[in-house]
Amino acid sequence: MAKTSSIEKNNRRKKLSKQYAGKRAKLKQIAMNHALSMEDRFAAQLKLAELPRNSSPGRVRNRCEVSGRPRGYYRKLKLSRIALRQLGNFGQVPGMVKSSW
């Protein structure tokens, strides 16, 4: 199990990125628009830099929903490989069968 502080920190980042998503998108659109003047684009870039760093979606780490493990993460299932194996062994993942040969 991962440290609860790192899991909570990641949850705060998710919340912030969702909260500032619209504002970030507008500012990025202005900053990338070459039809606007250089001053307007630069001002948008400065406003974007003033936003909290943790509001960037790139700072959110994919973590397992069960254990909070950051490595070996399956995006489709939102589980780590270890949690997936444990749930599969108990028959809690539909369609997953323990292999044996």
Structural class: mainly alpha
Tell me the distance between the termini. 31 Å
Return the CATH topology of the largest domain: Helix Hairpins
The gyration radius over C-alpha positions equals 20 Å
CATH class of the largest domain: Mainly Alpha
Q: Please, what is the average pLDDT?
A: 94
Q: How many helical stretches?
A: 4
What kind of sheet is the major sheet?
2 strands, antiparallel
Total tally of structural domains: 2
What's the arrangement of strands in the largest beta sheet?
Answer: 1-2
Structure, explained:
There is one protein chain. 50% of the residues lie in helices and 4% in strands. It has 2 domains: 1-61, Helix Hairpins; 62-94, Ribosomal Protein S14/S29 (30s Ribosomal Protein S14, Chain N, Irregular). Helix 2 runs antiparallel to helix 3. It is mainly α. The chain has a two-stranded antiparallel sheet.
